[in-house]
Specification:
Order of helices and strands: HEEEEEEEEEEEEEHEEEEEEEH
Largest sheet: 7 strands, antiparallel
Number of strands: 20
Strand content: 35-45%
Oligomer: single chain
Structural class: mainly beta
CATH topology: Methylamine Dehydrogenase, Chain H
Shape: globular
Strand order of the largest sheet: 3-4-5-6-7-8-9
Distance between the termini: 72 Å
Number of helices: 3
């Protein structure tokens, strides 16, 4: 009796195993291609063509609940991109600053920790300024990272960062020169004060009168002509011109990414995945690469991959 029951159970187990194996084999034979989003652009006269860019690298990033400025930023002089990567045990709001370099973009170099956003390269690319959020006291600060391997620097160390009774928000305005940085720091509810830092000496001074905090304080920066052409002015979404203004990266209202090739008047989708939602795009200085944040992933696309494949 026991022997017969054992044999029956063994038969059932083998049958299930064979069924699962067969399903796996059949599934392997019927792979489905990633769906391509249907064109949604309202720009007249554009011809929809097949994608002309290819994915060359992908890495994990932090996720944010609301905008925190640029989470990806290319060097102004080289094909090196900085981004805020997720850390072990945490992928929300704060991460570590990494950099990647062409052509493979496969070896992240860690430059600093406790970054929140606002990545901004100096004109000569020797320094990356960033918005930091210290976990020790939950205060915002402005930090400096050095791509050449130097130790990162906190411009608001310790209690200097406490500029109001809350989290002491801060923002990066611009690099004036390679050693001068302009920032905003909170001075109370809806109050921001300008400051000018000499990053070499560490000296700073207040600039101008306090201003009201803008609603888009930490919005993503995009590149665009002084006068946006009328054909693109009514597009809903994020438009980002390449440095040579030959192409436009367009995030539409559904989170898909499109590339508008301006001169020939072509339009094609960027394959970010069937269910991904794009948040930010950033072009390399030479317009050869586009970095895209898709949910919690950094995707880097090349526009020369087809030429390279034919060499």
């Amino acid at each position: 009796m026991h022997s017969r029951s054992f044999i029956r159970l063994l038969f059932v187990y083998i049958s299930i195993l064979l069924t699962v194996t067969a399903c796996s084999i059949l599934g392997a034979e019927t792979g489905e291609a990633t769906p391509t989003p249907a064109p949604t652009s309202s720009v007249p006269g554009l011809q929809v063509i097949s994608p002309q860019a290819c994915l060359v690298a992908e890495h994990g990033m932090i996720r944010v609940e609301r905008p925190q400025g640029d989470l990806i930023s290319w060097s102004p002089v080289a094909d090196t991109v900085a981004y805020i990567a997720s850390t072990q045990g945490s992928s929300w709001n704060v991460g570590e600053l990494n950099s990647l370099s062409a052509p493979a973009f496969d070896l992240p170099v860690r430059l600093a920790t406790q970054e929140a956003g606002e990545l901004t390269w100096s004109p000569g690319a020797s320094i990356i300024a960033y918005l930091g959020l210290r976990r020790s006291d939950n205060l915002y600060t402005i930090g400096l990272a050095y791509p050449d391997g130097g130790a990162s620097k906190d411009l608001f160390p310790g209690e200097v960062a406490r500029t109001d009774g809350f989290s002491s928000q801060k923002s990066i305005l611009e690099w004036v020169t390679e050693d001068r940085l302009r920032v905003l720091t909170s001075c109370g509810i809806d109050c921001m004060q300008g400051m000018d830092f000499n990053v070499i000496s560490g000296l700073s001074n207040l600039t101008g009168n306090p201003i009201q905090r803008k609603w888009d304080l930490w919005s993503v920066r995009t590149n665009h002509p002084a006068q946006i052409p009328a054909a693109y002015a009514d597009l809903v979404g994020q438009l980002n011109w390449s440095p040579d203004e030959s192409q436009i990266a367009y995030i539409d209202g559904k989170g898909f990414v499109w590339i508008i090739d301006v001169k020939p008047g072509n339009l094609y989708p960027l394959d970010i995945g069937a269910y991904g939602t794009a948040i930010e795009t950033d072009w390399s200085y030479d317009s050869q690469y586009l970095a895209v944040q898709v949910d919690q992933n950094l995707k880097i696309f090349s526009f020369n991959c087809f030429e390279q494949a034919g060499e």
